[in-house]
Design goal:
Layout lengths: L2 H7 L10 H9 L3 E2 L1 E3 L2 E3 L6 E6 L4 E7 L3 H20 L1 H18 L1 H12 L3 H29 L3 E3 L2 E5 L5 H14 L3 E5 L6 H13 L6 E3 L4 H9 L5 E5 L2 H11 L5 E5 L5 E4 L5 H12 L12 E5 L3 H12 L20 H16 L3 E4 L14 E4 L6 H4 L6 E7 L2 H9 L6 E5 L3 H7 L7 E4 L18 E2 L4 H5 L3 E3 L22 H6 L4 E3 L2 E3 L6 E5 L5 E6 L3 H13 L1 H5 L2 H17 L1 H12 L3 H22 L5 E3 L5 E9 L2 E5 L5 H14 L3 E5 L5 H12 L8 E3 L4 H10 L5 E4 L3 H11 L5 E4 L10 H4 L2 H5 L2 E9 L3
Parallel strand pairs: 1-5, 7-8, 7-10, 8-9, 10-11, 12-13, 12-17, 13-16, 15-16, 17-18, 18-32, 27-28, 27-30, 28-29, 30-31
Antiparallel strand pairs: 2-3, 4-5, 6-20, 11-19, 14-15, 21-22, 23-24, 25-26, 26-32
The structure holds NADPH dihydro-nicotinamide-adenine-dinucleotide phosphate.
């Protein structure tokens, strides 16, 4: 096209990026990409390779090593022997390496960008201006955390060897999100990229080599799901960090259940993009382009569900369609295109299938009229309107450039539709009324909310989901917790600390007649549905009472009562603190009675019982104190935006209190959870269950709203199983056997409950370091990051 022609029609010409350097880099490697293990390039042990193609033209880019269990074992061996000395380098020592990585990534940024685009099909504009700069930013940011670790995270230790499995949509960026915090905290890494996109991970390994990163600190195993599985199952790996599909995330949750491996899962999404009638519609249209046509819609947090207020729907959809018609789909290396190629033919097939399902279910299809290149994996920007909120395309992730649209009438309805999803990764809220936007944002169950913006990311801001979008955060200080353990966690004992009652045939008849406590559900004492009871013995084995034998229906009622107590979650932290103080006050009045009961059930001397009681009161005070102090944060990413990192209660938490922990164990576990606004269903210890039933009399007089604490006595294993399978519970804290811990983690996979289990270890409930610490608070909340741009 001549300049004159361009001047007349104002069309973009092409602006192709030169790919020669990247192609030469591949050629220098004989178009063969291999593992990087223990500081050396390694061919695959089984000598098998698969082909990696450029999705723009389906040309072969390279042969990629197909990793096996042997390769993974070698990498784990190398990482294990490197880990201690890597941590021993100290924060400053590691910071220097991370800084060097950041510098080298900047230096080679064009090569990284072009290679990423060749391999993945994403527009060069995006890999050059978004992916790679963010990668460098992550290494800079985490060089800082390495430097500050000792000061900011005292008493923390690395986990050891970390296995990281990443997807193909942001290959190098996902590598950076995982590798930078892991190395900063003193761990060593085995990383497996997705089989479609290994190239930039290999270039990164080359950079590690060039800066002289100690061998074994970063190990790269290429391959497919088999290599991923070998990493997940390796016994010497302390943690798995995974980004990918919810289906594989669930497999990983199940495979690691009971192994003690820490896991973080960043899974799929179906994020709502909510447009209120007072929004600046021209900005919103550009927002939609960024939300769903960025990276061909292959973005876990893509704003793929458009919710438009009914009053402006027609006007907005008309504007959007006009904008769609201007979008250019073309060669990913062309700087003037809007959308490039989808990663692979298999993904293209999925997109086609999903759109057909949408149309079959009644949606109206609109696609931009742009020309698509003939040979590659291209799909046009697509809009499905008249979509029912319950239809397949509104519920399932499509992972392509397909937007599904529906309408709402009121803010309340917008929130309901937005939350009508098994996912909870992100949402965008568009309104010129900041009060409305900030009212809606906290009500949406998602880890990231963008107000009048979308798809913004930064190393200082945590990213991660609620519900089946997974758990754990990447970025910011909260992301570091995924890669450390606290020193006290290594001191937990394998031995139970107290005597349990010897069962004798004796029955103390007086007390049996006097004491027939009930379950405590929804603020009321209720009989167990089963109509059965279990005996309770004193320390001498004499039966002194019976407690209800709770069952599935009691659990169901308790969860329903907890759901209704949502006012507790929404009330102010100050109000919650007052109730906790009041509980402590009313409990203190009954000190003698509780101390006698502790002695009777555990055989403790009066003095020891009083010590336990006093410590329980102190714990209640501690969490009353934390109610209004466990604040969020404001992050300042490098843009004109502030990010409010808000701590939100999980919702319903099931707590299986420690059997050996007695009254103190019960108080120590339930108080932090309710302090931060959760509603709980607690299974007390069997031996000391009478203390729990005594305790609800205190709750009845302490202004605690009905349904905040629900107490179900009975067989702990049976109740644990029922609770673990319940779909309406967001968190599960378990202190019990190793088998029980495994069961809780395994069953949690169905709905991705946040679990916290003891793996059969025993806490010392008298030791504040173990039994009253930040982990109790951290496990009570999710962190939601709300991005608020500023500037006129
Ligand atoms: P997967 O979840 O299958 O892949 C993610 C990573 O896990 C890849 O490295 C993959 O290897 C690896 N992997 C696959 N199976 C296992 C296993 N059993 N154990 C351990 N690791 C495993 O996603 P896909 O690439 O297959 O994409 C399928 C769908 O997942 C997409 O259509 C999209 O809906 C969703 N997705 C979501 C992403 C997100 O960011 N949330 C990212 C990518 C996909 P390999 O590449 O060799 O299969």
């Amino acid at each position: 096209m001549s300049i004159k022609e361009i001047f007349n029609n104002m069309d973009y010409g092409t602006a192709p990026e030169n790919a020669n350097e990247a192609k030469q880099w591949l050629k220098n490697k004989n178009n063969s990409l291999t593992h990087y293990i223990n500081g050396a390039w390694q061919t695959p042990s089984e000598n098998t390779y698969f082909t990696s193609k450029n999705p723009v033209n389906k040309e072969t880019l390279a042969q990629v090593a197909d990793g096996s269990t042997v390769d993974v074992n070698n990498a784990v061996k190398a990482a294990t022997s490197a880990q201690k000395s890597w941590f021993a380098l100290g924060g400053h020592g590691r910071a220097k390496y991370l800084y060097a990585l950041a510098r080298q990534i900047q230096k080679h940024s064009r090569l990284f960008s072009v290679l990423e685009t060749l391999d993945n099909g994403k527009p060069i504009r995006e890999s050059r201006d978004i992916d790679i700069p963010l990668v460098a930013r992550h290494f800079y940011h985490h060089a800082g955390w390495a430097q500050l670790m000792a000061k900011e995270l005292p008493n923390s230790e690395p986990l050891g060897v970390v296995g990281q499995i990443i997807p193909w949509n942001f290959p190098l960026l996902m590598l950076a999100w995982k590798v930078a915090p892991a190395l900063a905290m003193g761990n060593t890494v085995i990383l497996k990229p997705a089989e479609f996109t290994s190239a930039t991970a290999v270039l990164f390994a080359q950079v590690c080599d060039e800066i002289g990163l100690p061998k074994g600190v970063f190990n790269l195993v290429l391959g497919d799901g088999k290599a991923g599985q070998a990493i997940v199952e390796h016994k010497d790996i302390a943690k798995i960090a995974f980004t990918g599909s919810t289906a594989v995330g669930k497999l990983i949750r199940k495979a690691t259940a009971g192994t003690g491996k820490k896991i973080s899962l960043e899974l799929g999404g179906k994020s709502a993009f909510i447009v209120f009638e007072d929004a600046d519609l021209d900005s919103v249209v550009e927002g939609v382009v960024d939300a769903i046509w960025f990276n061909q819609g292959q973005v876990c947090c893509a704003g793929s569900r458009l919710l438009v207020q009914e009053s402006i729907n027609d006007k907005f959809i008309t504007k959007l369609k006009a904008r769609m018609n201007k979008l250019i789909v073309g060669d990913s290396l062309d700087k003037s295109i809007d959308m490039g190629a989808v990663v692979d033919q298999s993904q293209l097939d999925i997109i086609n299938k999903m759109v057909k399902i949408g149309v079959d279910e009644g949606a109206s299809l609109y696609q931009c009229g742009c020309d698509l290149p003939k040979d590659g994996c291209f799909y046009p920007p697509t809009l499905l309107t008249d979509v029912e909120p319950a239809s397949t395309v509104a519920q399932q992730e499509i992972f392509g450039p397909v937007l599904v649209a529906t309408t709402f009438r009121t803010p309340k309805e917008a929130v309901q539709i937005a939350n009508n999803s098994r996912y909870g990764l992100a949402a965008s809220v568009w309104s010129e009324n900041i009060n409305l936007a900030l009212d809606v944002a906290p009500q949406i169950k998602a880890g990231v909310i963008w107000i009048n913006c979308t798809n913004m990311f930064d190393a200082s801001v945590g990213f991660g989901g609620y519900r089946e979008s997974g758990f754990g955060r990447e970025g910011g200080k909260e992301g570091l917790f995924e890669y450390i353990k606290e020193s006290w966690q290594t001191k937990l004992s394998d031995k139970a600390p107290i005597k349990t009652a010897k069962v004798s045939a004796k029955v103390n008849n007086e007390q049996v007649i006097d004491r027939t406590p009930k379950l405590y559900i929804g603020g009321k004492q209720v009989r167990p549905d089963s109509g059965y009871s279990l005996p309770v013995y004193d320390i001498n084995g004499v039966q002194i009472a019976e407690v209800p034998d709770g069952s599935r229906k009691d659990i169901r009622n308790a969860v329903e009562a907890a759901n209704k107590a949502v006012g507790w979650t929404n009330t102010s932290a100050h109000n919650r603190a007052q109730v906790l103080y009041f509980i402590a006050e009313n409990l203190t009045v009954r000190q003698n009675e509780f101390c006698q009961r502790i002695s009777q059930l555990t055989g403790k001397s009066d003095k020891d019982a009083l010590t336990e009681f006093d410590l329980a009161i102190s714990r209640i005070f501690t969490y009353a104190a934390w109610c209004d102090k466990y604040d969020g944060q404001i992050h300042q990413p490098p843009a004109r935006v502030v990010t409010l990192a808000m701590k939100e209660a999980l919702g319903n938490i099931a707590i299986v209190a420690p059997e050996e922990g007695g009254f103190l164990g019960l108080i120590s576990t339930i108080m932090p959870a309710i302090a931060l606004g959760n509603r709980i269903i607690v299974i007390p210890s069997e031996q000391t269950s009478l203390l729990a039933t005594d305790f609800y009399q205190v709750l009845n007089t302490s202004d605690l709203p009905a349904g905040v604490i629900n107490i179900i006595t009975g067989d702990r294993d049976v109740l644990t199983d029922t609770l673990a399978k319940h779909y309406d519970i967001e968190g599960f804290w378990y202190w019990g056997s190793a088998a029980g811990s495994k069961l809780v983690e395994f069953e949690a996979a169905a709905t991705m409950k946040r679990t916290w289990v003891n793996n059969g270890k025993y806490y010392d409930w008298f030791d504040d370091e173990q039994a009253q610490n930040e982990l109790f608070l951290r496990n009570s909340v999710e962190i939601k990051n709300i991005w608020v741009p500023y500037g006129a």
